[in-house]
TrEMBL record:
The keyword Cell membrane does not apply. This is Oxidase ustYa. The lineage of its organism: Eukaryota, Fungi, Dikarya, Ascomycota, Pezizomycotina. GO terms for molecular function: oxidoreductase activity. Keywords: Membrane, Oxidoreductase, Transmembrane, Transmembrane helix. Belongs to the ustYa family. The chain crosses the membrane at residues 35-55. One of its GO terms (biological process) is mycotoxin biosynthetic process. It holds the Pfam family UstYa. Pathway: Mycotoxin biosynthesis.
């Protein structure tokens, strides 16, 4: 059997030496795997940011948590039997309107102000009281027109105010979204139904504690 030549032996040794000194690089992961992990990392960061924003937003512009209670709606004569401007004033005197309050704006993410009431800083209005104020304004206007007030005596400001109030109350009703199922009577029976409501007593107490 023929023996390998000297040149062949040297070539084999050189090849073995190169192989032994070679750096074996790790295989790169497929591109789709890298893309997946990049996407997963970005999605995780976005989810953390979203949760943080939601947790910090729950208290913005909403001062306290109010207890929910069962409340039966029944006709209230002081509000229904209104025949004059004096009756309107008496019916609405049970509320502290317009319901201005003063709070630290930094706590609730509000913009500071000093021009709502002269000499008083950071004055705001609870939406529920704003809606009641609008209802009172509408009933006052209705009573005046029913009693013969001429449309010529109604100022442009009053007209614009009424338009604002109708739209504001509409949005307030949609916001509350009361889903109580009510009986529909067409025979004159009193309308009564039980609703789940925020405790008005607690709302009034908070307003009094922070009133201007």
């Amino acid at each position: 059997m023929a023996q390998p030549s000297q040149d062949e032996s040297m070539c084999e040794l050189e090849t073995q030496g190169l192989l032994s000194d070679a750096i074996i690089l790790p295989k790169k992961p497929p591109r789709w795997k890298r893309a997946f992990w990049v996407f997963a990392a970005v999605a995780t960061v976005e989810a953390i940011i979203l949760v943080f924003l939601l947790l910090n937003k729950t208290h913005i512009h909403f001062p306290i948590s109010i207890d929910l209670i069962e409340t039966t709606f029944t006709p209230e004569p002081p509000s229904e039997n209104v025949d004059s401007a004096e009756d309107v004033s008496k019916a609405w005197s049970v509320y502290t309107l317009p319901g201005f309050v003063t709070v630290d704006p930094a706590i609730y993410g509000l913009i500071p102000n000093n021009n709502v009431i002269q000499g008083q800083k950071n004055v705001y209005l609870l939406s529920a009281f704003h809606q009641l104020h609008c209802l009172k304004a509408l009933q006052t206007m209705y009573t005046a027109l029913r009693d013969g007030a001429s449309s010529h005596t109604i100022s442009t400001h009053d007209t614009e105010h009424m338009s604002h109030c109708v739209d504001y109350i509409r949005q307030g009703v949609e916001c509350a979204g009361d889903m109580t199922l009510e009986h529909v009577y067409g025979d004159g029976r009193e309308r009564t139904s039980t609703h789940i409501c925020r405790s008005w007593t607690e709302i009034e107490q908070w307003q009094r504690d922070h009133s201007v």
